Amino acid sequence: MSQAPLPVRKAVIPAAGLGTRFLPATKAQPKEMLALVDTPAIQYVVEEANSVGIRDVLIITGRGKRSIEDHFDRSFELEHILEESRKIEELNQVQHISQIADIHYVRQGDPKGLGHAVLTSKQHVGDEPFVVMLGDDIMDPQSQVISRMTEIYNATGCSVVALKAVPPNEISQYGCARLELSEDGFQRIVEIVEKPNPEDAPSDLAVMGRYLFTPGIFGALEGIEPGSGGEIQLTDGIARLLETSRVLGYVFEDGRYDIGNKLDYLKATVELALRRTDLGPEFGDFLRYLGDSGKF
Questions:
Q1: How far is CA 2 from the centre of its chain?
Q2: pLDDT digits (tens, 9 = 90+) for 133-142
Q3: pTM of this prediction?
Q4: Closest to 212 (Cα-Cα) out of 186, 184, 250
């Protein structure tokens, strides 16, 4: 009888990027701290990990990212003021932030790419499986991407990569994978490349900011030479892992926002605002008014 795979207890969130796609807003603040309505983007990611029972979270930070640490820390002065003012709802919100997960930090140092960022988590992760969740990718809770990926891992013991079909003119912005159906019914990755030209892309399936790895990824990343953009690419590490291990793909359709992209950021903000009971009805009326008045 085969041994059950180790449970997934740890998450790694790379958040050391410079956020150049969102300048000038990210000149003096991390892109991961950009608010969607009233909540920083990275808090949504940490809460996503918590939603599947993952409380051990390692955030990979860099220069100028101290506000991320401050956000998830206790703020005794603020809590005292809110308590004295009897602002109980606000007090509960502030206290909740520091209780979502047990958060640890390590600095990447040099911005050498996503693969290098993941490699810096090796000592913390150890010999356990773990998820990698990009700090500027927001998943709709209804999409349950991490939950589905965990189910696949639990059934197979294999690493899993989240994938989504994109138009040909967008594939050069992503890692791209080709799948084949295995005998056990799971989709196996047989080829993966970083940011291919549309005419060279092995498929239309793009890598979408959520990964579940066995610790074998660390050995695959060690010794990887800089690739696209002069960086150590996680995609190249996955390609190397394919030489010795089975890596599966999980294909989903909707519910992902790249909040480093200004249009996706606006879409996510609007959709999240519309779902809130305190904002949605009035905000929806406002949007309908704009539409009826011909302003868009």
A1: 31
A2: 998 888 987 7
A3: 0.91
A4: 250
HEC profile of 54-76: CCEEEEEECCCCHHHHHHHCCCH
Residue 102 CB-density burial (10 A; 0-12 exposed, 13-18 middle, 19+ buried) = exposed
242 closest CA partner among 179, 152, 173:
179
Contact 116, 232 (CB under 8 A): yes
Whether the link from the prior residue into 202 is cis, omega within 30° of 0, is no
Alpha carbon distance 166, 150 (integer Å): 23
In this predicted model, what pLDDT tens digit does every residue of 188-234 receive, in sequence order?
A: 999 999 999 999 999 999 999 999 999 999 999 997 887 767 788 99
Structural contact between residues 62 and 109, judged by C-beta atoms closer than 8 angstroms: yes
* Structure-model confidence comparison of residues 16 and 96, the more confident one: 96
